[in-house]
Amino acid sequence: MSEGRKLRAGLIGLGAMGRNHGRVLSNLDGVELVGVVDPAGDVTGTLRAPVVSELGELLAMGIDYAVIACPTALHESVGLELAANGVCALIEKPLAQSVEAATRLVEAFESAGLVAGVGHIERYNPALQNLRTRLEAGELGEVYQVVTRRQGPFPHRIADVGVVMDLATHDIDLTAWVTGQEYSSVSARTVSRSGRLHEDMVAVVGQLADGTMVNHLVNWLSPLKERSTVITGDRGCFVADTLTADLTFYANGAIDTEWEALRAFRGVAEGDMVRYAIPKREPLLVEHERFRDAVEGKQSDIVTLRQGLRTVQVAAALLESASAGKTVGVGPSSGDDSEQSGRVAVG
What we know:
With 347 residues, this protein is of the alpha/beta class. It has helices at residues 16-26, 55-60, 75-84, 99-112, 126-136, 163-179, 260-263, 283-295, 305-324, and strands at 7-12, 31-37, 51-52, 65-68, 88-92, 116-119, 143-151, 183-191, 201-208, 213-219, 226-233, 236-241, 246-253, 269-275, 328-329. The strands form 2 sheets. The chain has a 9-stranded mixed sheet. Helix 3 packs parallel to helix 4 (99-112), helix 5 packs parallel to helix 6 (163-179) and helix 6 (163-179) crosses helix 9 (305-324). It is globular and about 75 Å long. One of its GO terms (molecular function) is nucleotide binding.
């Protein structure tokens, strides 16, 4: 790309997430949003870019990269067409609705030598970024357990996948990323209570490669909206609220007790609580800045397609476990680009 020329970007899909992508792309430094694909057109009338009904029309405008924010079931066909036309892509999570489709996307973009990423936005949440830095520095000591809760009302925009692929993929990716460890096994139970084809509630017990225990509770059936990540270790526990981007540390206390009955219990004690002051930039903006930099050839921290594939593999193992009623092993990811870049130090 010649110095000073803006990157030409396209957007595919104007659903709830697509409109957010459009807002950010419209104001992103160094980028011009030149066109949008959506069969329904611009229902809000707020976009400055032309809206077309076919991907071919967008490609004819000449774009450097595109953001894929259409339904998950269409990710594969749209992504393969972009790769075939030499266009880089930021694909909303999950990468695809099946391991096979995700694998084909990885192979297509890798063989074309194109920059491609997955929109696992929680990696850019200020609370989780701060938490990961602290874990890498060994502030928690040995990590024992990661517990996530992600629940809220059913989003009527989702029709093609269940809660595992749509919501639990957030927790799978952030857990592997924040700890620097891959999943080794999962056991899951799902239910469907809303009368839809797909599951709308899942409970997961899993294990990471280093033995860390993982629990995920995810559902679309609660009027309470909650996004919580709790990591417990040798020196206490971190609590990240990704709705408010707050991070709190609860330290294990070192206060002796004079109460004989409690002295015999060699557990932990309640210590100091610290809520960290964290600069709070919008995660979606940070995600777009990182991807823009990658397309420009700069060193940048994006979620690669291989990492996105790994998350789909773990999600598929959850569904297999729930269907078969057994624990399912998850083999190590292929290639050099595993989730373990940024391995956590244990103190």
